[in-house]
Amino acid sequence: MDVIIRTVSKAIFPFILLLGVFIIFHGHLTPGGSFPGAAITISGIALIIISYSLKKAERIINEENAHKIEAIVALILALIVIYEPVFRNYIKYGTRLFELWSAQQILFLNLLGGAMAATALLLIIFLMVKE
Amino acid sequence: MLITLITSLVLGIIGVFCVVVKKNLIKKIVGLSILTNSVHLLLISIGFRPQGIAPIITRSNQIIFASKAVDPLPQALVLTSIVIQLSVTALALGITVMAFRHFKTLDTDKINKLRG
Amino acid sequence: MLEYTVFLLIISAFLMLAFKKDLIAIFSTAASFIIICMAFLFKNIETVRFGGWAPPLGIVWVADKFGLFIAILITGVSFLVALYSTKYIKEKKHRFYALLCLLTAGLLGVSLTGDIFNMYVFFEIMSISSYAIVSFFLDKDAIEGALKYLIIGSLSSSFILIGIALLYGLTGTLNMADLVIKISHTPPYLTAFGLILIGFAFKSAIIPFHAWKPDAIQGTPIPAGIIFTTASVTIGIYGITRIMFIFNLLTLTTAFIFFGVVTMIIGAILALIQINVKRMLAYSCISQVGYITMAIGLGTRSGLISGFYHILNNILIEALLFASIGCVIYATKETSLDKISVKNNTLLIATSIGILSLAGVPLFNGFVSKWLIYTASLEVNPSLTVIAVVISAITLAYGVKIISIFFNPSGKTIKIPKAMLVPVVVLAFLCILIGIFPHIGLSLVEPAVNALLNQNHYLTTVLG
Are A127 and B94 a contacting pair at CB < 8 A? Predict the structure, then answer.
């Protein structure tokens, strides 16, 4: 790709990541949540793959690590679902509505679900580019 | 309400028609997508309410929320279904790529080697 | 405890991809098998409320004896398959195991859930991992089988989704026990149930919907073929039976008898003319599904007992046949019946046991369930019995064709790894054990039938 596209995508990349992470974090307050946020985040990495190359994207995160992150996140997610009463009863949350820290374990579930969806979409993109 | 139901019915018929009649694999996959999306439209229209508001509680709408908001459950179902459809479509396209490598064509009549 | 089995299987799928150790998959399938067995032995009915929400609102899992009976069979088969494929699959083994774990998790989820949309989600998890597993070898046959399976399978899942959408629109609930109270038997409801039943019928390969199955089986690795011919079929029948009995759709039984008989006859005749051994086994499985559908369609208690008994026996026999023929294919890399000729006494004995059981010869397990089917159908319509007996004879005919591969004088002796022989021997032993002591099988089947017929107990347990 030519130099304009490369420069612009390099400049815009952190902001795309930021927007994705913001949407994941505010999933319980505004429309969006884990899956749309993850899709936006990964579209940033897809932009890097298109404008630079697969290698540049693999310097950020490669397939092995994505698999490992996915496995570990799945483990934590299952533990949260199993020990859900602990999160419900023993952690103090803010009581005022419309604050980040107000929706009990939904925030954690959004975060982990976001990480899960992001790695899954990333692996789909990697496999489609490689094969 | 009625118009969405009719639209989803028409879309569903187009989807099934595409899957059954068309010979090109990509067209078949597009047909599957149309069919699934027609079901999504049906689900969303089930939860529809005239002059309804989005089912999100904000500072201003807490009083009228229960009487005005549309049903959020079909929307959750549609989200789940979209994720499922994403993986089906990704897998279908991946297999189609492999099929093109083996058979050098996307025509389903020519891929049909297994018989008996 | 029950929900842990599905969690364990899904997590072990991800762990397999990350860390590539065979033991993870074998351990998780074995552990879920043990947990399910414990639940069957010690619990009458168990409900799991996710997030602590009461049933009509939250997702609830209901494990009655019927669901647990199916779950025992599924996890047992998948444990044996996990053992079997340690040696059979050579490349990309971690991917195969991950798909196997996901497939088992989906099957388990369908059999244990009490929420109809949750059922659809697990059904899709199962279907997607099946499509991937069919295309596992990425050669011509595998790709073609996977494409056919994928297109037909997604079409049928869309039908299920339309049915669920209609049901939700008409009643405003997704919980199965709550639906039972709210439905009536008017045309819109019957349309919805019809769509859902067609979706499950695709999965269980009843005859008008069977086109994908032989093609899919021909391309798959043998261990996955074992799962498809046994567990996937069983889950289709489970779905049909559950929907039919919990929603009192007993007017449909005539259609079930009709389709069952058609499936039985056409499956057996098509099996007779095959030359590819994998396709022959696939058609024989379709024919056996006909028996099960017919027996369940009789609608009487004895019909249900015989049908469920045949589910159990069908799983044991088809898994045994597939596993032992798979050993031959593993050694010779050949699937055409004309070209295979081998010598191996263990496999010969195991295959003969499988064929004799399939044909319903006394002292083998197939005889028990077929005898029950004959007696149950005699009460309803004697001509059904005649057809069933004739089809048994045809079964023996194509069975002999399979055994003949061991009797060619020019065949060469083959060596099979121990990890592949163990499942074969275990399955053959179980076939003879149930054939000689039929009440072992009955102790599994009778609680399942009682749970299915005792609908009020289900409703009161779920809704509290």
Answer: yes
Distance separating the N- and C-terminal Cα atoms of chain B: 48
Cβ atoms within 10 Å of A99's Cβ, excluding its own? 11
- Which overall architecture, per CATH, does domain B2-111 show? Orthogonal Bundle (1.10)
For B97, residues 6+ apart whose C-beta sits below 8 A from its C-beta are A131
pLDDT digit string, tens, across residues C215-268: 888 888 888 888 888 888 899 999 999 888 888 887 788 888 899 999 999 999
**Span C282-294, pLDDT tens digits:** 999 999 999 999 9
Euclidean distance between CA atoms C380 and C300, whole angstroms: 9
* CA terminus-to-terminus distance, chain C: 20
How far is residue A34's CA from residue A99's CA, in Å, rounded to a whole number?
18
Residues in chain A with CB shorter than 8 Å from the CB of C19 are 68, 71
Cβ within 8 Å, pair B32-C165: no
Neighbours of chain C (3+ CB pairs under 8 A): A, B
Closest residue of chain A to C98, computed from CA coordinates: A71
What pLDDT is attached to residue B116?
Answer: 53
* B12-50 residues labelled b (16+ CB within 10 A) or e (exposed): beebbebbeeeeebeebbbbbbbbbbbbbbbbbbbbeee
In this prediction, the answer to ipTM > 0.90 reads yes
Q: Which residue has the higher pLDDT, C55 or C373?
A: C373
Identity of the residue in C10, C19, C50 whose CB atom sits nearest the CB atom of A74: C10
Residue in the block written with tokens 């008994």: C309
State how beta strands C342-343 and C46-49 pair: unpaired
Which amino acid is located at C368 in the chain?
V
Give the C-alpha distances (Å, rounded to integers) separating C6 from C1, C3, C71, C103, C111.
Answer: 10, 6, 11, 10, 11
**Could you say which DSSP state residue C44 is in?**
S
Q: Is the pLDDT of residue B13 over 90?
A: yes
From residue B67, give the alpha-carbon distance in Å to each of B52, B60, B61, B71.
9, 14, 10, 11
Instruction: Report domain extents, chain B.
Output: 2-111
C11 → closest Cβ in A64, A68, A74:
A74
Mean pLDDT over B69-93 rounds to: 89
Per-residue model confidence (pLDDT) at position A92: 66
Stretch C140-163: mean pLDDT: 90
Q: What pLDDT does residue A93 have?
A: 65
**Which burial class, exposed, middle or buried, applies to B104 when counting CB atoms under 10 A from its CB (0-12, 13-18, 19+)?**
exposed
Count CB pairs under 8 A between chains B and C. 91
Mutation choice for B interface testing from C144, C174, C209, C275 by most B CBs within 10 A = C144
3-state secondary structure of C295: helix
The identity of residue A32, as a single letter, is G
Measured between CB atoms, which of A30, A98, A124 is closest to B90? A124
Query: pLDDT value at position C429?
Result: 92
Looking at residue B115, its pLDDT comes to: 65
- Against chain A, the chains showing at least 3 CB pairs within 8 Å are B, C
Give, in order, the Cα–Cα distances in Å from B42 to each of A88, B14, C121, C345: 35, 15, 18, 59
